[in-house]
Amino acid sequence: MVDAHRTFVIVGGGLAGAKAAETLRAEGFTGRVILIGDERDHPYERPPLSKGYLTGKEERDSVFVHEPAWYAQAQVELHLGQTVTAIDRATRCVHLGDGTSVRYDKLLLATGAEPRRLDIPGTDLAGVHHLRRLAHADRLRRVLTSLGRDNGHLVIAGAGWIGLEVAAAARSYGAEVTVVEAEQTPLHQVIGPELGQLFTELHREHGVRFHFGARLTEITGQDGVVLAARTDDGEEHPAHDVLAAIGAAPRTALAESAGLVIADRAHGGGIAVDASLRTSDPDVFAAGDVASFPFARHGAAPGARVRVEHWANALNGGPAAARAMLGQDLAYERIPYFFSDQYDLGLEYSGWAPPGSYDQVVVRGDAGKREFVAFWLKDRRVLAGMNVNVWDVTEDIQRLIRSGAQQDLDALADPSAPLGSLAP
Q1: Is the Cβ–Cβ distance between 141 and 166 less than 8 Å?
Q2: What is the pLDDT of residues 5-36, one digit of tens each?
């Protein structure tokens, strides 16, 4: 029986919001749980949008966090296709796009992120795409099928994770693919230049063309149809469709208008939260892609924050925020984690080591055969690790990161030395 005297509102119908609602009920909360999402689809997980669902290996229904009937069974009030227009912190109310208001005792903002837009001529053409929502994936899957059938060309702006995963998916359909990237290697902002070339070679082997050191300046077309994409160095690439995969921006407008503290852009922006995912308002919490939380591991500057746009952060952050809303004492100290699948290469990455934060990279195994573990270190301490086609080592890698211990580099690089023995 729901106790209507206490109401917890969750704004954001993604994985973080859905798992927060699930956790509130699992922890015994008997008040009202209201989950508000601006999409009409039930809450879903995003990784399949550029992986299994996009490639056609998974069915559409596989992406959803819960069966649709679960929400009524758990007495979670689900408002789909509904926007929140404002938060009134003084009265503890959220105002909805349909003119109604909902009062809250605790509020969780899990508003996620949105794709960054190409600010160039031609983005209004019908063949220009983004990939963030299930509706985007539905459309892109149809496009890739058509491109593969007709030997069509896809130009992708950006060689980050989304760009590379879509490139792999497009090649699996038989589409021609060109990736335009401002850096000289893929994934530069995540893994740096040392291993970026490996992904260049992987995709080139599968027929992807790269154009490095350039940015799109114009998408040309005729009668509303894309014909080509031009770059700032004068090149022109034939294209029937263009995907903008140049990153995502946290959806902070609602929090900003409510006067909540926003993290500096140098830290990735996002809603600033403390270790318990509480914002500058003690009754408002944030989790998932939109939350910027303290990051105090070795190599991080004093006061550093990190905002993580990956599945595991939503999966774990939503439940953590729910427990904090219930008054439980906790510190959200998860090591950032993500995974990727491209062709026959699978990988997992743990930690945080952007270019400039590390002083060397150590590889254990055979990078040439794409079966290895790479470590990013500073002062011989592991900041991050990536296992490529090597499995069941994530926990060991994360223990190395947590330990902050200086490593014997020869042992770290030696596949015969058990990883589990290297952390004190």
Answers
A1: no
A2: 899 999 999 999 999 999 999 999 999 999 99
